[in-house]
Specification:
Elements lengths: L25 H11 L4 E6 L4 H6 L13 H18 L5 E9 L8 H13 L5 E5 L1 E6 L8 E6 L2
Parallel strand pairs: 1-2, 2-3
Antiparallel strand pairs: 4-5
Length: 155
C-alpha cells in the first residue's frame, strides 16, 4: 500500500480544503474589492472568447452538466453571477457583457442570446451589455516591427 503523505507544516492552510460548492470565484472577490474601493457596480465579462463565453457558446458540447443544452451552458455563468452577487451589497449594480451573435459556424445567434439574456435578467442581473463578434489576429506588420494584435470588432 502507498505511504500517506507527510503531515502539512504547522500553520499551512490547504487552499483546496474548502468544499467544492463554496469557493468564491475570482469575479466575486474582484467585485467585492471594487465595492470596497468605492465603485458602484461591476460588469462580468461573458463575451469575446473569455471563459464564460466559451461556456455560453452553442459550440459547447461538454457532457458534464456544463454544456450541450442551453441549461447546461448557462450553469457556470449563473453560478459565478450568484456567488458574485452574494459577495457585494444589494445596492451594488452587477451585470454582464455577453455576445448577441458569435458570428462563427455553429455559434450562438440572436434568438438564443435573447433566451440567455432572459435567464440572466431572471437571475437578478441589473444590466446586460451586448456585443457582437470579436476576432483577434496576430500578425507582423513588417520584418522590422514587433507583432501586434489587431482586433476587428463590431460592438
Amino acid at each position: 500500500a502507498p505511504k500517506p503523505p507527510p503531515p502539512a507544516p504547522v500553520g499551512f492552510k490547504n487552499p483546496f480544503a474548502q468544499p467544492p460548492s463554496s469557493p468564491s470565484p475570482p469575479p466575486a472577490k474582484a467585485a467585492k474589492r471594487a465595492e470596497l474601493a468605492g465603485f458602484h457596480g461591476a460588469e462580468l465579462h461573458y463575451a469575446h472568447a473569455y471563459t464564460m463565453a466559451s461556456f455560453l457558446s452553442a459550440t459547447n458540447s461538454r457532457k458534464d452538466g456544463y454544456g450541450s443544452t442551453l441549461e447546461g451552458r448557462l450553469r457556470l455563468p449563473l453560478e459565478v453571477f450568484a456567488a458574485t452577487k452574494k459577495s457585494v451589497s444589494n445596492g451594488f449594480a452587477l451585470g454582464c457583457r455577453m455576445l448577441s451573435d458569435e458570428v462563427i459556424d455553429g455559434g450562438t445567434r440572436v434568438e438564443e442570446s435573447a433566451k440567455i439574456a432572459t435567464a440572466f435578467a431572471a437571475s437578478g442581473m441589473d444590466f446586460i451589455s451586448l456585443s457582437k463578434d470579436f476576432s483577434c489576429e496576430l500578425r507582423a506588420r513588417s520584418s522590422r516591427s514587433r507583432p501586434f494584435i489587431s482586433a476587428a470588432s463590431s460592438t
